[in-house]
UniProtKB/TrEMBL annotation:
Chain segments annotated as transmembrane: 187-209
Lineage: Eukaryota, Viridiplantae, Streptophyta, Embryophyta, Tracheophyta
Annotated V-SNARE coiled-coil homology domain residues: 126-186
Organism: Salvia divinorum (Maria pastora)
Protein name: Vesicle-associated membrane protein 711
Known function: Involved in the targeting and/or fusion of transport vesicles to their target membrane.
Keyword presence, Methyltransferase: no
């Protein structure tokens, strides 16, 4: 079996445990519980001969398992995550004040079942590999979004330039419309002036023709 032993503890208080074989894992596990530094959430692994003790502590609740060194890290930590979620979902805030081994009668069976599943069922590895790939995709997506956010100044600059271009285009169209109107009125005025000048010339010519000394009167 890949996983041979597991426990759930609050600090150094063991609330439930199960061992699939006769080993000194429980004694070593208690030493590890005493040695885990600080109170922060942590994931850690400790080697002992050909076995690895994997530890996951979240919100003061510690889940520990001993696995064969050939099991790697993906399956043991997927097991720890599953156990943590099941334990919190089952007991809630009761874990904050529970006495030693208060949950052992019921939850040791859950530990046994999950050890068997994660050690023997190939579907466990496939599911966890899929979860890992999905997590990697999510990390890449978040990284890509962060890169876009890092380019925020460039995006703002681009928006500013676009707005400026749009403003310039609007002003150009307005000026062009005003210029066309000016030219049109100038042409109208010029046409009226030419017509007026032509009428004056015609009047002068007619006046000269009609009142000249050697030509008969136009009347």
């Amino acid at each position: 079996m890949a996983i041979l032993y597991a426990l759930v503890a609050r600090g150094s208080v063991v609330l439930a445990e199960y061992s699939a074989t006769s080993t000194t894992a429980n004694a070593i596990a208690r030493q590890i519980l005493e040695k885990i530094p600080g109170n922060n959430d942590t994931n850690a692994s400790y080697s002992q001969d050909r076995y690895i003790f994997h530890v996951k502590r979240t919100d003061g609740l510690t889940v520990l398992c001993m696995a064969d060194d050939t099991a790697g890290r993906r399956i043991p930590f997927a097991f720890l995550e599953e156990i943590h979620q099941r334990f919190v979902r089952t007991y809630g805030r009761a874990v904050l004040s529970a006495q030693p081994y208060a949950m052992n009668d019921d939850f040791s069976r859950v530990l046994s079942q999950q050890i068997e599943y994660f050690s023997s069922d190939p579907n466990a590895d496939r599911i966890n590999r899929l979860k890992g790939e999905m997590s990697q995709v999510r990390n890449v997506m978040i990284e890509n979004i962060d890169k876009v956010l890092d380019r925020g100044d460039r995006l703002e600059l681009l928006v500013d330039k676009t707005a400026t271009m749009q403003g310039n285009t609007f002003r150009f169209r307005k000026q062009a419309r005003r210029f066309r109107n000016t030219v049109w009125w100038r042409n109208v005025k010029l046409t009226i002036a030419l017509i007026f000048l032509l009428l004056v010339i015609i009047y002068v010519v007619l006046a000269f023709v009609c009142h000249g000394p050697t030509l008969p009167s136009c009347l």
